[in-house]
Amino acid sequence: MQPILSLDGVAKSYGGVKALTSGALDLYCGQVTALLGENGAGKSTLVKIITGIVHADGGTITLDGKPVVIESAEHARSLGISAIFQEPVVFDALTVAENIFITGRPLKGRSVDWPTMMRRSREILAELDPSIDPAMVLGRLSVAQRHLVQIARALSNDARIVIMDEPTAALSHREAEELFAITRRLRDEGRAILFISHKFEEVFALCDRYAVFRDGAGVGQGTLQGMSSERLITLMVGRPVDQVFPKQVVAIGEEVLRVEALGRCLEYENVSFDVRRGEILGVYGLIGAGRSEVMHALFGTAPAETGRIVLNGETVSIRSAQQAIAHGIGLVPEDRQRQGAHLRLAIGDNITLPSLGRTTRGGFLSARREREQAAPLAEQLGVKMSGLRQRVEDLSGGNQQKVVIAKWLATAPRVLILDEPTKGIDVGAKAQVHRLMGELAAKGVAIIMVSSELPEVLGMADRIMVMRRGLVQGIVPRSEATPERIVKMATDA
Amino acid sequence: AGARGAGRPVRIAIVAKSLGNGFFNAVHLGGDQAAAAIASAGGNRIEVIFTGPTNTAAENQIDVINALIAQHVDAIAISANDPDALVPSCKRAMQRGIKVMAYDSSVAKEGRILYLADATDQQAGDACLDLAADACSGHGKVAILSATATSTNQNSWIAAMKADLPKHPGLDLVTVVYGDDLSDKSYREATALLQKYPDLAVIIAPSTVAITAAAKAVDDAGKTGKVFVTGLGLPSECAGAVEKGTIKSFAIWNPVDIGYAVVEIANTLVAGKGGPGSSITAGKLGPIAFDADGNGTLGKPTTYDKSDIAAAAKLF
Amino acid sequence: MPESFLRLLRTREAGLLGLNLLLLAAIAPFFPAFLRPGSLAGLLDDTALLILLALGEMLVLLTRGVDLSIAANLAFTGMVVALLDQYHPGLGLAPVLILSVLMGAALGAVNGLLVWRLRIPSIVVTLGTLSIYRGAVYLASGGRWVNSNQMSPQFLAFVRLQLGGVSMLSWIAIACAVLVALFLRRSVRGRDLYAAGNNPSAALYAGIDVGVMQFSAFLIAGAIAGLCGYLWVSRYAVAYTDVASGFELQVIAACVIGGVSISGGVGSVAGVVLGALFLGIIKNALPLVGVSPFFQMAVSGVVITGAVLINARGTQASALRILERRPA
Amino acid sequence: MSDVSLSARSKARVTRRPWHALVRWETLLVLAILVDFAINAHASPYFLDPWTLSDVTVSVAEKAVVALAMAFLVMAGEIDISVGGIIALASVSMGLVARAGLPLPLVVASGIATGLLAGCVNGALVTIGRVPSIVATIGTMTLFRGIAYAVLGDGVLKTYPPGFAWLGQGSVAGPVSFELVLFVALAAVAIVLRHATAFGRRVVATGSNPEASRMSGIATDRLRFALFVAVGTAAGLASVLLTSRLGSTRPSIAQGWELEIITMVILGGVAIEGGIGTIPGVVLAAILMGLVTFGLGLLNVPGIVMSVVTGTMLIVVVAVPAALRRYGGGRQ
Ligand SMILES: Nc1ncnc2c1ncn2[C@@H]1O[C@H](COP(=O)(O)OP(=O)(O)OP(=O)(O)O)[C@@H](O)[C@H]1O
Ligand SMILES: Nc1ncnc2c1ncn2[C@@H]1O[C@H](COP(=O)(O)OP(=O)(O)OP(=O)(O)O)[C@@H](O)[C@H]1O
Ligand SMILES: [Mg+2]
Ligand SMILES: [Mg+2]
Q1: What average pLDDT does chain D have?
Q2: Pick the CATH number of A5-238 from 3.40.50.11030, 3.60.21.10, 3.40.50.300, 3.30.365.10
Q3: Buried b or exposed e, range C285-303, using 16+ CB within 10 angstroms
Q4: Which residues form the domain of C151?
Q5: Candidates D120, D143, D309, partner chain C, best to mutate (most C CBs within 10 A)
Q6: Cys bridge to C261: B159, B311, C31, C266, which one at CB 3.0-4.6 A?
Q7: Beta pairing partners, D272
Q8: pLDDT at C239
Q9: pLDDT tens digits for A398-430?
C-alpha cells in the first residue's frame, strides 16, 4: 500500500534552534499512526509544517505520490488536511459556530453565510455534545466543551488526513474514550490519522502504526504489532528508562492541613479533606470538576466563601498568595505559561521570585545569595540549561515545569499543591517529577497532587479524593483504589 | 547688549503668540520694513528674528524665550500668551542684558520694560460695541464668543464692553462663551448660541478664530441677514464672510504698523535710550508716549466693511 | 421571537441606547428645543466626524492595536487637500475626495507596515507618527492658515448638502457605519479581524495572518481619517496646524464607552456609534443647559470616567458554573 | 550591529548577560547624545556655554522627573495618560494654599499631596475598578484638568510665598540648577530601586506576567496601586517645579506633556508591553530629548518641527533593532 502522505528528511530551525533535522513519517489511509518522542523531539513542529503554518527549511513532502509544497494553512486545508493542535486554538469572544468554521467559513457569494454555518455546526455538534448551542459565545463553555469544539472543527471539513497533537493531554478517561470512538470511526471511514501522545496505554489501545522522533530526527517507524512500550521508549530516548512510578514508602505523620466544608458560589461546596506529613493526596476528576478552584482556595488566589482551613491545628485565613506562602503552602499551577513561569525572565529570577524575602536583605538584592538559593535546586531537578541567566522561554516544556517546581521548593513549603504536574511532559521528565514528589514526601512535606491521569494518581497517591461537578465524591485509600472504582466515582452521579 | 561685537547686527526677536497666524506674519512684515528703513537711514544694521510656539501655550513660549536668551539676542518683543507665567523667564532675559518689551498682549509689568498696546482696552471695547450697535440698529440681544477664558486682552476688552453697555441702552448682552481659539469648539459654541437664543441679533467675537467660526456657524444655520457677526479679525480671514454679508463690518488694528513700531522701539531700547515715562519716535509713525508704567498705545483700531475689505485682505 | 428579543435587550448596545435616551430625557426639561428634529440633525452632524474616526479606531482596537495618529493624519490630509483646493480651485470635488482617502490610507499604511513587518507595538508607532504627521502639517503649510475665503465654493458646499433634512456629512457617517458593519459581519476578512484580535496566537493556527489583519485595520483607519481630513476642513472652513489636536483621545473614549475592548476582539459598530453619540450629546448639551464653561470639562471628565468604570464592571468574567443546578 | 553575524548559539549566550541588553540600548543612546552634542556645538556658537547647558536641563527636568516614575509603571505593564491633568490640578491646589497665606512647606506639600491623591484615584480605578489603565487615565486626564478649570475658571493664582520661586528657577551652585540636582538625586534613587531591590524585581515580574506574579506571592494590585501613586506624586513634584518656574498657576499648564513623557520612557528602552526596561536608559533618553529640542530651539526651529524630530527618533530607535532582529537573521 502506498502512503497518502509521506515526509522525508524534513528540517526546520528557529533562528539557531534546530527543531527538526530529518523528520520522516508515512501516513496510510484507514490507519492511525502514533507519533512518539520526548519533549522537544520536534513532533509539534512537524504538525505545523504539515498544516502549512510554518515552512520547512528542507526535505520533501509527498501527497498521493506527488511532491507538494504546503504554502499556507489555507492550502493545507484545501489539500484535505485538518488538525487539532497542541495549543488550544479557541476564540473566546466568537460564537461556537465561528470557532468550528474559523477556517473555511461557508460563503454565499463573497459574504459569510451565517445560517448555513449555524446549521452545519449544529449537525456536527449533535454527535459530540448536543447541549452546545452553536450561537453561544465560546467563552461561556466549560473546558471539556471547548475541547469538543476543537474536535468538531477537525471534523468540519471532511479532511482525508486528521492530525491530533496530544488531544488527550487535558482530557479525562471518559472524554478520552469518546474521542477514541470518534477516531476509530474516522479511521474506518478510510481517513489517515496521526495521533501524538505521551501515554502508551492510549497508543496501544488506538493505534495501528508508530513513528518515533528523537532530537528532531525520525528514528524508526512501522507497525505497532509486536512492539512493546519498553522498545518504544528505548527508541525515543536512546536508552531504557524506568517507566514505573517510583512510589516511595513513607511513614505518614500527623495532620498538617484540614479543610472543612469549603464552598464558593457556583463552583464547589462542602469540600472537606485533610492531608498529613509525608502523604500524597491525589485529587482526581474530570476536567472542569472544580479541583483547580479548590486548590486556588487553599492558596488564597480565589478564596472560598464558606468553610474553614485548619493548618497545624489552627484555623487560618488565607486570602492571598503571600499569606499562603507565609503559611508554608506552595502551588504549582496548572497553566504553566500563564500562571507558572515568567517566560521572559531568567531561570534564576524565576526560582527566587516567591522567596525573594529570603535572598534579599532590607529589600536589596544579592546576586550571590540568589545563586546560592537557585543553583542547587536547578541541579537537583536536573533542569537542562546553559545557566541560571538563561531565559525560561528558551527551555522545553518539561524543563519549564521543573523551573516552576523549583521555585516552590525554594520556599520550603510544608504543604505543596501540584496541579497537573506532568501535563504534556515526556516520560523522562515525568519520572523525574514523580521521583521528586517521593523525596519531598519522605522529607515530611504534605503533597496534594491534582491529576487527570489515572495511572499517575493510582501510582503515586496514598489516598485519592475524587471530585465531580464541584462536589467531593469520596476519598479512597490506596489499598482500596481500583481504576474502575475511581472512574465510576468521577463520572456517575 | 555690551557683548555685541563690532559689526555684528542688532538682533531683535519678535515672538508671536503662535506661528502661522496671519496677524503675526504681518507684524513680522512691518518689523522687516522698519529694519530696512533704519539701515537705509544710516542707523544700526538690524536682524529681525521672528519666532514663537506653534500653539498658544505659555510653557512653549518660555522655551522659545530660553532659546533666545541662549542666543544672546539684543532685544525680545513678545506678544504674551500668559501675562504672569512669562515673567520669570523675561526677568531672566533682562538680567542677562536683553531688552524685553511686549506688544499686542502684555507681560506683567515686572517682566518687561515697555508695552506697546495695539489700542487701549477702552478703544477696542468701544469699537466692538459700536459695531454691534451698528449691525442691529441699536436694538437686540448680543452675545460674546471669546477665545480662551484665560486670554488677557480678550478679557480686558470684554470688561470694557461691559462697562460701556449703558451707553447703548438698546443692546442686551445675554452671555459670554469661550471657543478656546479652536475652530471646532468656537463653531459649536456659536451654534449653541443660535439655538439657545433664537432671537439673537449679534455675536461679538473679539478673536480672529472666533469671528470666522461664528460667521461660518451663522451662515450654515441659514441665519445670514438675521444674525450678524462682528468683532476683531483679520481682513484676509473675514473677507469671505463680509462678501456674504454675515459680517457687516469688523475692526482690527494694523499689524504692519505694530511690527514697524516694535522694531523701532526695541532698537531705541538696545541703544540704551527710552524707557517708561519717555516718548519714543517710531520712525514714520511718529512719537509714541509711554507712561510711568511703560504702557504706550499705537492707535485706534480701523473698521473694515464691504467697501474696503478686498484691498485690506491682500495685505494681511 | 421573544427570546432573541430579550437577548437583544440585555446587550451592551441596548444599555447604551437606553443611556443615550436617558441623557436626552434629562436635557429635555432644561431645553426642550434640543429634541426638535432640526436640533437632532445638528447633533448628528456635529458628531459625524467623531463617529467616522471612531469606526476606524475600532478596527485597530479590534486587532489589539491603538492608533494615536488619526487626528494628526486628519490634520495633515485636511491641510493638503485645502492647499490643493486653494491653488487649483477649478479641479472640483472628485480629486479632493480621492486624494484625501488615498493620502489618509497611505499614512495609515505607514503605521500598519511598522506594526506588521517590524512588530513594533502600535502605541509606540503611532506615538511617533502622531508627532511626525502633526509636524508635517506645519511643514506643508509653512504654518499658514487656509481660510474659508480661500476655499472654493464646491469644496465648502459638499458637506453642507442637505438630503432629507440631514447633512451630507451625516450621510457619509451613516454610510460608513453601514459599510464597516457589513465588512465586519459579512466578509471573511472582517471575521478574521475579530479572530486575530481575540486570540492572535490561535489565529496563527487557523491560518489567519495577524500582521496582515493589523495592517488592514490601520489602512482602513487611515483612509477614514484622511476622508475626515477633508470633511473637517470643509465643515469648519479652516485648516491650520492644530486642527483636531488631542481629538484621538476623544475618539478612543467613544470606542471604549461603546464597548470596544482595548484588549482586542470585542466591539460592534452599533456600540461605537452609540458611544460617539453619547459624547456628542454631552458636548452639545453642556453649553445649552447653561453649565458654566469652566465646569464643562469637569463634567465630561466625570461622565467619561464613570462610563468606563461601569463598562469595566460589565465586562468582568463571571465564574463558570461547575456545581449542578439543583431543584430549589 | 556586529552581533548579527555571531552564531545563534553564542548570541543566545551573550543575551543571557544581565547587563548586555542594557549595554546595547544605552550605547545607542549615548552615541546619539554625543552626535547631537557635536551637531549642536557646531551649529550654534552659543551652545557650549555653561549657562546654556544649564538651560537645557530646565526644559526637560520636570518631564524627566515624571518619566522616572512612569518608567516603573510602564515596566509593570500599565500606563498613565493623565499626568498633564495631575500637574494642572496640583498647581491649582498649591495656588489656593498659597493664596490662603500658608507657608512655603505647606504649599509644596499640597502640590505633592494632590498628585498623590490623583495617583490614588488612578490606582483605584485600575486595581479596584478593573479598568484598563490607558482607558482609565484617558478619563481622569479630562477629569483632573476639568476640576482645575472648575476651581480656577479664568482666574490666575500668582501669590506665592517668598522662596517658592527658587525651586524652579534657583540654582544650587553657579549654573547647576536645583531642578537638575533634584533630578539627578531622584534618578539615583530610581536606579537603585529598579536594579538593586526586590521591589524592582517585582515590578518587572509583574509586567512580564501579571498572573504568574500574583501566583508567586507578589501583591500585584498593591504594587500597581503604589506605582500609580508614585507617578501621581512625581507629577505633583513636577507641578511644584513648573509652577515655581512659571510663578503662576493656570488650569491650562502642562498640556500634552503625557505624550512627551511616554516618548521619553519608550526612547529609554522600556518596552511598552511591560517587563523590560532600565532606568539609565530613561535618564539618557531624557538627556537626548533635552539636547535635541534645545539645540533645535537655538536655531529657532519651531517646536512643531522638533516634534517631527522626536517622533522620527522614537520610531527609528525602536525600528532599527526590530528590523535587524527580523531581517538580520536573529530568532523571532
Ligand atoms: N517558535 C519557536 N522558536 C524557537 N524554538 C522553537 C519554536 N517552536 C519550537 N521550538 C523548539 O523546537 C524544538 C521542537 O519543539 P516541538 O514543539 O516540535 O517539540 P514536541 O516534540 O512537540 O515536544 P512536546 O512533546 O513537548 O510537545 C524544541 O526544542 C522547541 O524549544
Ligand atoms: N469556559 C472556560 N473559559 C475559561 N477558562 C475556563 C473555562 N472552563 C474552565 N476554565 C479554566 O480551566 C481550568 C480547568 O477547569 P476547572 O478548574 O474547573 O477543572 P479542574 O477540575 O481543575 O480540572 P483540571 O484541573 O483537570 O483542568 C480552570 O483554571 C478554569 O478556570
Ligand atoms: Mg508538541
Ligand atoms: Mg484544573
Answers
A1: 87
A2: 3.40.50.300
A3: bbbbbebebbbbbbbbbbb
A4: 10-312
A5: D143
A6: C266
A7: none
A8: 92
A9: 889 999 999 999 999 999 999 999 887 777 788
pLDDT score recorded for residue D151: 93
Where in chain A are all domains bearing CATH 3.40.50.300? 5-238, 255-328+413-491
User: Can you tell me the distance from the alpha carbon of B223 to that of B193, in angstroms, rounded to the nearest whole number?
Assistant: 12
- Global pTM reads 0.89
Q: What is the CA radius of gyration of chain D?
A: 20
If pLDDT is split at 50, 70 and 90, which confidence band does D332 have? very low
Q: What is the pLDDT of residue B1?
A: 39
Residues with Cβ within 8 Å of residue C94, at least 6 apart in sequence: none
| Ligand 3 geometric centre to CA of D240 (Å) | 57
Joined together, the cell numbers standing for residue C293 give 464653561
How many domains are contained in chain D? 1
C328 lies in some domain: no
> Is there contact between A and B if contact means ≥3 C-beta pairs under 8 Å?
no
CA distance C129 to C127: 6
Ligand 2 centroid, distance to A260 Cα (angstroms): 23
Relative to the alpha carbon of A236, which ligand is closest? 1
Q: Average the pLDDT over A262-267 and give the result.
A: 91
Instruction: Quickly tell me which residue has 497553566 as its cell.
Output: A335
Alpha-carbon distance D44 to B96, whole Å?
18
* Mean pLDDT of the C92-121 span: 95
- C-beta of residue A149 within 8 angstroms of C-beta of residue A132: yes
The arrangement of strands across the sheet holding B200-205 comes to B171-178, B140-146, B200-205, B228-231
Asked if C218 and C67 count as a contact pair (C-beta separation under 8 A), the reply is yes
**Taking CB atoms and an 8 Å limit, are C308 and D139 in contact across chains?**
yes
Domain count across chain C: 1
User: Is the confidence at residue A339, as pLDDT, over 60?
Assistant: yes
Q: Shortest CA distance to D143 belongs to which of B21, C305, B45, A406?
A: C305
Out of A314-323, A356-365, D62-71, least confident range? A356-365
| CA B71 to each of CA A145, B15, B64, D179, D297: distance values in angstroms, whole numbers, following the listed order | 72, 14, 11, 22, 10
Give yes or no for residue D86 having a pLDDT over 90: yes
Confidence class for position B2, pLDDT limits 50, 70, 90 = very low
CA distance B103 to B114: 8
CATH number of the CATH domain containing C159: 1.10.3470
Q: Which residue of D has its CA nearest to A394?
A: D12
ipTM entry = 0.87
Percent of chain A at pLDDT > 90 equals 56
CATH code at position D228? 1.10.3470
Q: Alpha-carbon Rg of chain A, whole angstroms?
A: 24
CATH architecture assignment, domain A255-328+413-491: 3-Layer(aba) Sandwich (3.40)
C4: in domain = no
